[in-house]
Amino acid sequence: MQAAVDERTAIQAAIRQGLSNDEFQLYYQPQVDQNGTLVGAEALIRWRHPSKGLVTPDFFIELAEETGQIVQIGTWALDVACKQLKAWESDSNHSRLYVSVNVSARQFHQPNFVDEVLRIVEINGANPHRLKLELTETVVLDNVDTVISRMKHLNGVGIEFALDDFGTGYSSLSYLKRLPLTEVKIDRSFVNDVIADASDAAIVQAILAMSQTLGLGVIAEGVETREQYDFLVKHGCQKFQGYLFGKPMEIDGLSRIAIPFGIKL
Ligand code: C2E
Ligand code: MG
Ligand code: MG
Ligand code: MG
């Protein structure tokens, strides 16, 4: 037990140092439409640890959420993503892409969350219409009325919301109707087995049908094979993200994708 506590304390200190030494980096994963045309990207954090190399978020996001460091990390990520949006604005190839940024529950529930987002968008001169925030069902679980009012406030300046990892949490379907969401993201655990597992296929179909009825957009995450993509298209999925189209990559890689032609399927 003591060893576990020591390790947590060590990681916490390392995160603090990583933030001040600028060791974090955003990777971007392509999001495409039914034609394979690039429409946006999800910003995913990576940690260039001096001795451990490239560290993925599953190693530190949960702990950062517990210690509260996620607030600083999330602010940093939003700032970098907004700088990227600004940089793309003058580049006719990329000016219509949006960037999706993950927001943790702890970050969203900070009293000054809305003001912080508005401030970061503003100081960077980023177009809020190109910014999307990904919330998980845990964000939405407590205090739905406050959540809705914050979302509406940000909606008011053009910022959109996606509900991430959809299907894995506990959100009631009635919330789905009330929340000002642009889209739901079907969790990759369902997409993964959609061909082999009849119940996952049924869940995916149900999410797609329900979203259509509610007028919500849908994006599938974790699309790795042509068969999964064909299944999703057949059942009305509009957008896709996954290794089939591209892994999370450094910004230069994303900038090299020629949008008018999109990604070959
Ligand atoms: P997420 O938001 O659900 O992101 C999708 C995850 O699925 C990413 O993992 C991505 O690399 C992975 N993925 C995408 N396509 C495929 C695929 O075809 N196959 C497989 N096997 N995996 C795929 P990643 O980058 O390790 O991020 C993990 C989680 O960490 C994210 O899940 C998100 O919850 C969190 N995260 C990442 N960046 C941030 C951030 O800036 N702030 C916050 N609060 N959380 C973040
Ligand atoms: Mg996400
Ligand atoms: Mg997700
Ligand atoms: Mg997921």
TrEMBL record:
Species of origin: Methylomonas rapida
Gene3D superfamilies in alphabetical order: EAL domain
Family matches, as SUPFAM superfamilies: EAL domain-like
Transmembrane segments annotated in the record for this chain: none
Domain (EAL) ranges: 8-262
Recorded superkingdom: Bacteria
Organism lineage string: Bacteria, Pseudomonadati, Pseudomonadota, Gammaproteobacteria, Methylococcales
InterPro entries: Cyclic-di-GMP_PDE-like, EAL_dom, EAL_sf
Name recorded for this polypeptide: EAL domain-containing protein
